[in-house]
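Hypothesis: this fold can be encoded by more than one sequence.
Test: take the structure tokens below, design a sequence, compare later.
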């Protein structure tokens, strides 16, 4: 698992027929207060946890799992991951955390047809994605975790409770599926998605100084050109209504 910078580690997704979200671990290992961002797709939890162990990270130091959002390709591996790190808390934006506690899986699957495909493909029973959420994020928090500061920004549009995590000192942005490399953005046709909201969210992200972009899929970028987010927004703006 490559180290991006001190305190930020990357486990690439292993896409199959369906995409597997990238996972990240944030926090200085010496703090013993690490956070795992987005477990990934069903069946990929053990791969992710094994990769983290191979990096020399002690599993008992993983204190929490933070979701950028709760789509199937990000949360599918959570039950497997929870078996390996049962002590880890689950932190989710409240707009997706409250449905998760009630077993409302509309955000997880995004659309009914996809739900049926996944349930057949992975032999998943309805209600599998019901979780106890230990902390419901609101957006606007400044988290001190792993001896680092991470700002939580609520950036809806791809899903209701999408968040990004931003570490200002090293200009690191973890935007989930809202923004990718190569001027791509997240889809906005699923349950709870909204083009206008996505536009506003990209505008907010464009105000941050970002050098290292760590999205949910595809390439990570270590030297993001200045003005990248704004350029991306301008390209997509006509479609974001
Ligand atoms: Zn995704
Ligand atoms: Zn998504």
């Amino acid at each position: 698992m490559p180290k991006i910078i001190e305190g930020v580690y990357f486990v690439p997704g292993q896409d199959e027929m369906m995409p597997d979200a990238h996972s990240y671990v944030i926090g200085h290992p010496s703090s013993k207060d690490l956070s795992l961002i987005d477990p990934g797709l069903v069946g990929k939890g053990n791969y992710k946890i094994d990769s983290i162990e191979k990096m020399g990270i002690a599993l008992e130091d993983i204190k929490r799992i933070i979701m950028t959002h709760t789509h199937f390709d990000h949360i599918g591996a959570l039950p497997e991951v929870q078996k390996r790190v049962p002590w880890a808390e689950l932190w989710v934006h409240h707009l997706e955390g409250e449905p998760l506690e009630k077993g409302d899986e509309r955000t997880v699957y995004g659309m009914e047809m996809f739900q049926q495909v996944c349930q057949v493909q992975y032999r998943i029973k309805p209600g599998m994605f019901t979780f106890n959420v230990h902390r419901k994020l609101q957006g606007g928090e400044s988290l001190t975790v792993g001896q680092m500061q991470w700002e939580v920004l609520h950036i809806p549009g791809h899903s209701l409770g999408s968040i990004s995590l931003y570490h200002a000192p090293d200009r690191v942005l973890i935007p989930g599926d809202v923004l990718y490399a190569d001027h791509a953005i997240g889809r906005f046709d699923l349950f709870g998605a909204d083009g206008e909201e996505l536009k506003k969210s990209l505008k907010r992200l464009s105000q941050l100084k970002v050098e290292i972009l760590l999205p949910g899929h595809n390439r990570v970028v270590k030297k993001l050109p200045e003005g990248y987010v704004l350029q991306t927004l301008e390209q997509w703006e006509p479609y974001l209504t």
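Residues 102 and 240 are 31 Å apart (CA to CA). The longest strand covers residues 148-154.
Hypothesis status: open.
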